[in-house]
Sequence to fold (216 residues):
Amino acid sequence: MTIFRIVCILFTVLPSLTAAAKADDLLIWSPAKLSERSYKATMGFRLPAEWETSAGADIALAATKSGAPLPDSEQAMLWGRIVRTNVTPAGQSQRGVKVSVDTLRGSGALTLSRSRSWILSDSLDMQSSRSVSVGYDPIDARQASVTASQALKLIHPWTGTSLSAGAGLSNVSGDFSSSVAVSQTILPNLNLDASMTNPFSEDEAGSVNLRYRLNW
Fold:
């Protein structure tokens, strides 16, 4: 029996556990069929506390019509996360640590993050986020890397308009990147987004997108 057939059996049997997983919020089980012959699942557990702790694995696999796994399609990612959230009448803040390890390729990353949202005035809200990530890739020429990023978003909740700006710095290339974006809610499920990366530089690039979201 091939690995792909075993995975198919698991995805056939294990969804019966989904109801139990939803009943018990401590369990994480999220299977998905990405295409006719590709599957992905996130599984793990969470421990509610002042610092919420969760850990688990992301597993994915794709195969040919004959049932043989496609080269480089396997994924076996172990991850762990610790998050603390503070909520006040004026806003919310969150601090977290996340670690991930690719067991098949030997790469990994450790990310420290912090975010905050608060009421700036009667008509404006503000969001800020910062993160620092330390990565390791045994295949890359520079195996260790550090990436830092920061973002700010100004929101007008009454009109659905938001303006955001972000910046990042990576020690691998030594490049500094920046971006600005504007988002406007046209209808409850329809948004117009415009963004620009690295403005006022040779690598300047922009995009405009119209997004429609449908839930059922």
